[in-house]
Amino acid sequence: MKMITAIVNKKDTGAVCRALTNEGFEFTKLATTGGFLRDGNTTLLIGLDDDKLQAAMDIIRKNCAKRMQKVPALPPTELAASVYHAYPAEVMVGGAIVFVSDVLHFEKM
Hints:
Layout: E1 2-9, H1 13-22, E2 28-33, E3 40-48, H2 53-63, E4 66-71, E5 89-94, E6 96-102
Antiparallel strand pairs: 1-3, 1-6, 2-3, 4-5
């Protein structure tokens, strides 16, 4: 048995969750916030049998799009804030970060 922990961009959450549900996967959805951009994400916890791992990974991969997003630049230090000219920077967002772990014990109560 495996546990997928998938951190998904909030813009992709609906499509991923619908696709997983349509294919019969059960999951727990947690609202989370990223540490770098401090933007909303969704963390999905998906417990599944080993033989269904590839199907779930394919669904996540297919429904999570990478995109460029402008974010405000932050001053490097508080002292430099008065002379710092903030220009938005473009960064790649979206996609998913996925961890797959072995489950040693599972029990549904």
